[in-house]
Amino acid sequence: ARFHGNPPSGWWDTARPRPSLAAMFADGTAPGTDVESLWRSARSARCEAKSCQTGRISTAETAVQSHRSRDASVQTDQSKAAVQDFQQEVQVDYTSLLSFLQRVEDAVIKELNKNWKSHAFDGFEVNWTEQNETVVCLHTLSYPEARGQNLQVTSVSWNATGSVLACSYGRLDSGDWSTEKSYVCTWNLHRRGLNPERPDLVVDVPSSVMCLAFHPSQPSLIAGGLFSGELVVWDTSRTEDPVVWRTGMTDDTHTDPVYQVNWLPGAKHRDHPWLLSVSTDGKILVWREERGGRLALAQGFALVAQQVPRSTWLKKFDWGEAAVGVTSLSFSHFDPRVFIVGVEGGYSLKCSTAAEAPALRGTGSSVPLRAPAEFAFSPHGGPVYSVSCSPFHRQVLPGSKRFSDRPRRNLFLSCGTDGQVHLHSMLQPQPLISLQLSKKYLFCVRWSPVRPLCFSLGDVLLFDLEKSSQKPALCIKQAAGEHPVYCLEFNLKHSQLLAAGDATGTAKVWQLSSDFTEQGPREVNHLEWLVSEIMD
């Protein structure tokens, strides 16, 4: 029945029995009901399949080359007609050709003569080596035992191949030099696995080694001068007993330390090596090899103050019979008889091995000593420690008006305890250039073997006279603090290498930039012009 409004009173009670509360909330279990998915059945009916891949894609293999290929050469294929035309004799109008050559003959000869006389390419050489823009340190070499004794690198020398560097150890400032043990060490810089603190060869020496010099053609021979005055030659290929010759302590031996040793130039000494040594005892001695591993005195010279040539520039010289102590020596590159020596009195002296005048001093030597000094140059303010002759000059015809044809001028450099470097011509006593570079001692100076206008000196200062004659082109810091550089040497075989040894017992190998190793066009002429301008 449907009612509108409120039901009549008592309707619920009469229309339906009212259940009890227990019946309304009793436990019960209803059976489960399955509902079939129409979507799955419909999809199965259509047999639709899905996967990660798309439908099958048709593919084809394609190589880099095309399917059809043929060989092709630089020249195009010649046709038979072209071959026949080529093989036919070329028709030349010899009459016209002769007429043309006669017309241009004078002009061609004129241009060829101009090219032949031109100096546009004088001194020019093609350089195929890699360019180096900066100066870098390639190796820092040291011997721990020598550094433990606070020994210094007193000398460095390159062997004949330019691959081995030798260093001598001693002490130049203080200590008991006569009894202190020292060393000679060598490193092969081309050896794989080079250890800068482990030399390839170490020679123990009972006296301080003051100087070294490798043989100019035999890579394993090296000579050394000792503080005791002895001269020793070692063979670095003999590891057990490397000493092959020595002077021993005789009446002919130097009585002062040997400060430089040189292998004498000249073919006559090739089979039997002759050595030259200088010392502060004033003697310059020449030694030859004898049987039994002995070096015997062959000839000698002695510098006595009384026999040094007088000049107006030598006002402070002590003119007596006292020995003039020799500290350094350099041979002329153009006259094997001429050499320059630096002495303790501050002077540089031009000397000759052809001198015949006897020395005015009784020496007790087994051979008579001669007086070699021929010319004296204006002095430094202290002892001269190093001299270096220029390997460059121009051989010319006297009397020519061109500056490049003036008489040759052999040049040399000197440095000493006054901190100055002098550039000298052998033709005049006063220096061409005098530079005050340091307030400290300068122990070494070397002329570049490849650049006529470049040289290097102590504390590794590189000069280029083409850029400036008053200040160095580059300053390299060799060692920390105030430790001086005692020695340096250019490598004659590898011109980009420069070795320097210092007071810390360290030797460094520097690779120079191309600016210091490549000679510019007409650079020798520039040096001659510079000297001529100063002298005029």
TrEMBL record:
- Report the subcellular localization: Cytoplasm
The answer on whether this UniProt entry bears the keyword Kinase reads no
Superkingdom, natural source: Eukaryota
* A GO CC term attached to the entry: ciliary plasm
MF annotations from Gene Ontology:
dynein heavy chain binding; dynein light chain binding
Name the Gene3D superfamilies for this protein. Answer: YVTN repeat-like/Quinoprotein amine dehydrogenase
Enumerate the Gene Ontology biological process terms: intraciliary transport
UniProt-listed InterPro entries: Dynein_IC (IPR050687), WD40/YVTN_repeat-like_dom_sf (IPR015943), WD40_repeat_dom_sf (IPR036322), WD40_rpt (IPR001680)
Q: Does the keyword Repeat apply?
A: yes
Which keywords does UniProt give here?
A: Cytoplasm, Repeat, WD repeat
Return the protein name: WDR34 protein
Protein source organism: Atlantisia rogersi
